[in-house]
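PROTEIN DESIGN WORKSHEET
SECTION A - STRUCTURE
LENGTH: 258
TOKENS:
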């Protein structure tokens, strides 16, 4: 009996730091096990070997920041049966989405000797703003265990088991003391999706919101609490304008404190 061909995996990069792709490589032994289940057909971070599409699963890192990106992501979508976006850049525009709140042309003129050669958009936006996305995996960078779960779910045609509750729940599960209650520190944990493993609260720092808004974030209530802690409007705005500045809930709350 002929052996069934392995599903083809492609990993794509747009405007980003490569951190989420590196998390895939950091899977090490687990990645070797995955290699028995699928065929890595396109992954320039790891190999120069390229196989033509279509692809069964595409993982996309990075945001859309140039006209070329717009055309390229549409072509990736056409070639992909399942398209999964990885990280804050791909799911919310990333830290580079801070350009959305400023005049990009002024930046280009200040940085480049010949700005006339720079072909860029005035915004940095998520992949889902341009094409249909089958699943968004949050994080800056993504959690490798969640990444493996999403890949396993895609291979087995089931829904990924990724938490949508807040970072506060994860802190409680791990026995981490609340930074706002115990130390009066600013923390985005109440409105941020869990998944980092309590990295910052675990070392006595407030959450920076790397995993973006949770499913039902009450940003208004959190902003009111931050004001009680002595944060002014500018400080509150800057807290919401970081890794996931262009995520809908964070963007709207930041705009309220402009």
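SECTION B - SEQUENCE
RESIDUE ASSIGNMENT:
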């Amino acid at each position: 009996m002929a052996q069934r061909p392995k599903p083809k995996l492609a990993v794509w990069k747009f405007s980003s730091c490569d951190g989420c792709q590196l998390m895939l490589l950091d899977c090490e032994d687990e990645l070797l096990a995955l290699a028995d289940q699928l065929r890595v057909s396109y992954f320039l971070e790891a190999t120069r070997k390229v196989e033509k599409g279509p692809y069964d699963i595409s993982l996309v890192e990075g945001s859309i920041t140039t006209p070329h990106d717009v055309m390229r992501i549409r072509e990736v979508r056409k070639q992909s049966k399942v398209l999964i976006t990885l990280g804050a850049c791909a799911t919310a525009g990333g830290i580079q989405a801070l350009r959305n709140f400023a005049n990009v042309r002024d930046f280009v003129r200040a940085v480049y000797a010949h700005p006339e050669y720079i072909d860029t958009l005035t915004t940095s936006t998520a992949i889902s703003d341009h094409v249909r996305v089958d699943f968004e995996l949050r994080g800056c960078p993504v959690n490798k265990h969640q990444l493996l779960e999403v890949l396993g779910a895609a291979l087995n045609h089931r829904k990924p088991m990724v938490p949508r509750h807040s970072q506060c729940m994860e802190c409680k599960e791990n026995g981490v003391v609340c930074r706002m209650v115990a130390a009066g520190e600013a923390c985005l944990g109440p409105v941020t999706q869990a998944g980092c493993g309590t990295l910052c609260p675990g070392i006595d720092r407030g959450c920076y919101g790397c995993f973006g808004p949770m499913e039902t974030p009450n940003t208004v209530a959190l902003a009111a609490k931050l004001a009680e802690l002595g944060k002014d409007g500018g400080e509150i705005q800057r807290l919401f304008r970081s890794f996931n500045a262009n995520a809908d809930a964070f963007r709207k709350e930041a705009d309220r404190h402009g």
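SECTION C - NOTES
The chain is about 35% helix and 10% strand.
The chain has two domains: 8-155, 167-256.
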